[in-house]
Amino acid sequence: xxxxxxxxxxxxxxxxxxxxxxxxxxxxxxxxxxxxxxxxxxxxxxxxxxxxxxxxxxxxxxxxxxxxxxxxxxxxxxxxxxxxxxxxxxxxxxxxxxxxxxxxxxxxxxxxxxxxxxxxxxxxxxxxxxxxxxxxxxxxxxxxxxxxxxxxxxxxxxxxxxxxxxxxxxxxxxxxxxxxxxxxxxxxxxxxxxxxxxxxxxxxxxxxxxxxxxxxxxxxxxxxxxxxxxxxxxxxxxxxxxxxxxxxxxxxxxxxxxxxxxxxxxxxxxxxxxxxxxxxxxxxxxxxxxxxxxxxxxxxxxxxxxxxxxxxxxxxxxxxxxxxxxxxxxxxxxxxxxxxxxxxxxxxxx
Length: 350
Prior knowledge:
48% of the residues lie in helices and 13% in strands. The chain is an alpha/beta fold. It folds into 2 domains: 6-165 and 314-348, 3-Layer(aba) Sandwich (Rossmann fold), CATH 3.40.50.1400; 168-305, Rossmann fold. Strands 2-1-3-4 form a 4-stranded parallel sheet, with helices on both faces. A 4-stranded parallel sheet has the order 6-5-7-8, with helices on both faces. Helix 10 (281-297) links the parallel strand 7 and strand 8. Helix 3 crosses helix 11 and helix 5 (138-152) runs antiparallel to helix 12.
């Protein structure tokens, strides 16, 4: 009996491909009830999303203009897909096509499903490009996949890679990025005395409490593991970035930690983007062009950022091993779920 024709589906957030589409991207983001949950959301969700995206459009356009007028996330995601396909081939697996389903801008999930149907794909290995589970990222992307499959009456054999924030090769990839950051920048102290500042994307506290989202626990455990296992002498802190609006978010805020470091004469800081697997607006603009200049203004002269994962070889090997686990049914992640809610809860409890 022949094996089902298999494809790999990357899930990611996406980003605008032009300045003109920044508002559309923001609208899609804030119209997602997995991001902002409102009472009677079917009435209020889209008007609120329109209001937020309108208010934030000009500032967001300025940020994307600093990157050449668009987000680089699709380019990096495509490169990661090519690297994964090559890594699988090097291990003796047939060349598997990689499809990309972005949550908030092209190529949308609907486009990826259409492409897989056209190509005759029967089995799909779903690879969330979110190492840490959150209902706002992996959960939202899986909910969107369910909606599209139901709408199109399409049935694939689905296998979903579980969260991999504790996978040995993912941790090794993070170690390599931090090591490169420590080795490639000038310091006024020994490298093992440099302050490591992990910066992860924040979430509204209300959302975390309402959903019991495991994201903050996974983020802290991941940062602690990386720091204590690989850099036991370096002081480290965890902070959160990218807060929007006045509601309480997970903290401390990254920009709020820097004045504390300055007041305590910490002049050697390596910032490490955690929870992101490629460069995009949060790293190239928020960290590089906002937080690091702020550190300099505060008198912290030696503040740099470790490279992002992008196509780091160990990270690609981590994705390769995770994919093979699903191809060979080695994972404890069941091949079939009775419902998408069951699938999402299995991911959350991993």
